[in-house]
Amino acid sequence: MKTTVLTIISLLIVSLAFSQTATNQNFDSELAKKLGADDYGMKSYIFVILKTGSNTTTDKKFIDSCFAGHMSNMGKMVEAGKLIVAGPIGKNEKSYRGIFILNAKDFEEAKELLKGDPAVKAKLLEAELFNWYGSAALPLYLEAVDKIQKTKR
């Protein structure tokens, strides 16, 4: 019985020791506030999967114009601090074309941002939106993009 009680007490002590959280000595409260970070350095974003839309037009001039506008709108969203990550997805069976991670507070704001995209507006692309929880520091990588991008679109 004495051994069982000692074992239980030991397990409780070990459990309490591992459940304690440590304060990060590198914590920068001003940066965390600027980025909207929670105590874990995380925040909510809207994750967007762009997929082939319902518009099946073959009008090359129209398609090219819409996708030029798509790229331009992406630039505007980056400038506004709203588009954090973007990129194409390789060929796949789900007709997924690309992703965005939007620095938007909710689906309504994300939908407003996407309304400015001519390819989405023309239904050449359709957007699926998801809540996503990720590092609040994610926007900081954008500062390096201009320094590593040899050719601009």
Overall average pLDDT: 88
Tell me the distance between the termini: 74 Å
Q: Main beta sheet: strand number and arrangement?
A: 4 strands, antiparallel
Count of DSSP H/I helices? 6
User: Any idea what the radius of gyration is?
Assistant: 23 Å
Determine and state the CATH class.
Alpha Beta
Structural class, by secondary structure, is alpha+beta
CATH H-level superfamily title: Dimeric alpha+beta barrel
Q: Into how many domains do the coordinates divide?
A: 1
CATH architecture identity: 2-Layer Sandwich
The secondary-structure element order is HHEHEEHHEH
Query: What proportion of the residues form beta strands (DSSP E)?
Result: 15-25%
Q: Give the overall form.
A: elongated
The number of distinct β-strands equals 4
Low-pLDDT residue intervals, each spanning 5 or more residues: none
Major beta sheet, strand line-up: 2-3-1-4
The CATH topology: Alpha-Beta Plaits
Assign a percent range to the helix content. Answer: 40-55%
Fold blueprint:
Layout: H1 2-19, H2 29-35, E1 42-52, H3 60-79, E2 83-88, E3 96-102, H4 107-115, H5 118-121, E4 125-135, H6 142-148
Antiparallel strand pairs: 1-3, 1-4, 2-3
